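Internal ticket #5521
Category: modeling
Description: The requester needs a full-assembly model to guide mutagenesis choices. All entity lines are attached below as received. Residue total reported by intake: 229.
Assigned to: D.W.
Attached entities:
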Amino acid sequence: GAGVSQTPSNKVTEKGKYVELRCDPISGHTALYWYRQSLGQGPEFLIYFQGTGAADDSGLPNDRFFAVRPEGSVSTLKIQRTERGDSAVYLCASSVPQGSITEAFFGQGTRLTVV
Amino acid sequence: DAKTTQPNSMESNEEEPVHLPCNHSTISGTDYIHWYRQLPSQGPEYVIHGLTSNVNNRMASLAIAEDRKSSTLILHRATLRDAAVYYCILRDVSGGGSNYKLTFGKGTLLTVNP
């Protein structure tokens, strides 16, 4: 498994519930990103990790959204009190460290549906 | 981030060349031009990037205008597998910029006819 892996691939949840989305980056990639993509739109930046710390979380829409990366590898995006407007595809990407112009590798995404 | 403008959609026939345009009239000297594409139900994938000179790789070619205010992604022989949304993105490499971030627009939806 050389690519970025995201689980689950699909998640249906009820409004008000809590969800966790998982991302396994490519081994050795210290930079990790979360994006959100609504239907018909391009991906929208949410948060960027360099190692274990969130270097930029300016894209998180509100305090219901939180992401962690405790050991600098796997990351979890957490959404509390889900709303129907949170329905989207959540994409994770990883790359070598910031500062070098290298490609970002994306996972296939988790499609979240809030009913 | 500097803005890019792309046509909403384009159509091509299989095995013919495709030229996907991108305008970026406000590009700065430290902006690299990146192209990503997104196949149906997949995450985006890197295609190519360049700064000033034209670039070629196994997937495509990137032609950059002399004034850098526009660029063109060239697929030399389109296949059905090239049907995707193509995104043109500017990425600032200067130290003060958030060059880790990719700012996607809506891209160009390429349809390839058999």
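Resolution: model delivered.
Comment from assignee: Chain A touches chain B through 27 residues (CB under 8 Å).
Ticket closed.
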